[in-house]
């Protein structure tokens, strides 16, 4: 992977981290997860369609959050790769 790709991944990771750290986004995830849990708990046991729908919504919310986390981790790995490349460049100069 070239430097430009690594820099783009690092920048995307930084942006994803900023979004995940934003108090409004955190509040939204907490509120949505709480609402879904309440919906699930208050649904009738025999209402399989409503329970399944609520569970699926929760899975989608989790998947969205995990996608952002994955982008953050990819960005961190890209930064490490850039750092290692810069160390190797310095070693070659010395």
Structure write-up:
The two termini are 24 Å apart. This protein has 94 residues and is mostly helical. The protein has one domain. It is built from 3 helices and no strands. Helix 2 (23-42) runs antiparallel to helix 3 (48-93). The model has no long low-confidence stretch (mean pLDDT 93). The chain is elongated.
Quickly count the domains. Answer: 1
Specify the structural class. Answer: mainly alpha
Helix content: over 70%
For the largest beta-sheet, the strand count, sense and barrel status come to: none
Low-confidence stretches: none
- Determine Rg (CA atoms, Å): 20 Å
The number of distinct helices, counting runs of at least 4 residues, comes to 3
Topology pattern, helix = H, strand = E? HHH
